[in-house]
């Protein structure tokens, strides 16, 4: 079943007297419980697409259907009610959260705002969320700046799953992490998806990362979607120059196992 369907999305920016077409007529779909990897060089329009989906900026043209609703025209209480269903994890978690906030308050906010569980049950829910992302319950008292980059990313994941979303958008969410920590976080994300049926839009310039998590991969180049298909097929038989350039940037890509072969999905 299609969870999200983007049609003919376009967005221009003007900056310093220049007119930039950040997105040109982009269409794509994401299936329930599956991962679409969105690849592309810096400036190709990936973050613009993610920001439009999160309703942070409006597009100039195009439509987004999410869970059979016209997502971009939802407003007021309808939008507030539905917002919980799409969550986002950024690269820069420290920038996204107040660094002095405690882990408890970072996780309590979404539970309270979206009334996920009754107030009396929130501490138990927070402990369960921390446990699910591999952190001890004692972390509730720490501030965001006191925890390591990998732990912070686990907290961001706990916060994202707190509202029981059907889609999580990851924007370069593991790019800043060391390779070994990155691998563990990607494993956690694959597990969470299989357990909870959450769909992912995984934005990255790194095809090795996308290969580990994606069922399908779409490639952007200068605002256009130039290629999309099953992850394995895209990597073994790229059709576009943009895809070939991304593959050439990851020398070990062709011999590493894919999600499809490793998890049989
Ligand atoms: N607020 C803005 N004002 C002006 N130009 C912008 C703005 N946001 C994005 N752009 C431009 O739009 C184009 C697409 O940017 P976008 O950030 O979507 O690309 P990206 O693929 O996510 O790149 P990166 O991987 O570097 O984040 C770029 O040329 C960028 O400079």
Automatic annotation (TrEMBL):
One of its GO terms (molecular function) is ATP binding. This is ATP-binding cassette domain-containing protein. CDD domains: ABC_NikE_OppD_transporters. Belongs to the ABC transporter superfamily. Signal peptide: none annotated. It holds the Pfam family ABC_tran. Residues 4-247 form the ABC transporter domain. Keywords: ATP-binding, Nucleotide-binding, Transport. It comes from the Bacteria. The lineage of its organism: Bacteria, Pseudomonadati, Pseudomonadota, Alphaproteobacteria, Hyphomicrobiales. InterPro entries: AAA+_ATPase (IPR003593), ABC_transp_ATP-bind (IPR050319), ABC_transporter-like_ATP-bd (IPR003439), ABC_transporter-like_CS (IPR017871), P-loop_NTPase (IPR027417).
């Amino acid at each position: 079943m299609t969870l999200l369907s983007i049609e003919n999305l376009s967005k221009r920016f003007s900056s310093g007297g220049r007119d930039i077409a950040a997105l040109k007529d982009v269409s794509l779909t994401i299936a329930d419980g599956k991962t679409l990897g969105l690849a592309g060089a810096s400036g190709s329009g990936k973050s613009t697409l993610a920001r439009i989906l999160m309703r942070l900026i409006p597009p100039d043209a195009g439509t987004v259907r999410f869970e059979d609703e016209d997502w971009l025209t939802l407003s007021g209480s309808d939008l507030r009610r539905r917002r919980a269903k799409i969550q986002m994890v950024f690269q820069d978690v420290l920038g996204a959260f107040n660094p002095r906030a405690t882990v408890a308050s970072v996780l309590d906010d979404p539970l309270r705002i979206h009334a996920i569980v009754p107030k009396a049950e929130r501490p138990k829910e927070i402990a369960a969320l921390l446990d699910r992302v591999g952190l001890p319950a004692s972390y509730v008292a720490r501030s965001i700046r006191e925890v390591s980059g990998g732990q912070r990313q686990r907290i961001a994941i706990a916060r994202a799953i707190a509202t029981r979303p059907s889609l999580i958008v990851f924007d370069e969410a593991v790019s800043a992490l060391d390779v070994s920590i990155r691998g563990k976080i990607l494993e956690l994300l694959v597990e969470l998806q299989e357990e909870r049926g959450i769909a992912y839009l995984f934005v990255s310039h790194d095809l090795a990362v996308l290969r580990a998590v994606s069922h399908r991969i779409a490639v952007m180049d200068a605002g256009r979607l130039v290629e999309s298909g099953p992850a394995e097929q895209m990597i073994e038989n790229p059709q576009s120059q943009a895809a070939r350039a991304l593959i050439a940037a990851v020398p070990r890509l062709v011999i590493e196992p894919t999600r499809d072969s490793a998890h049989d999905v």
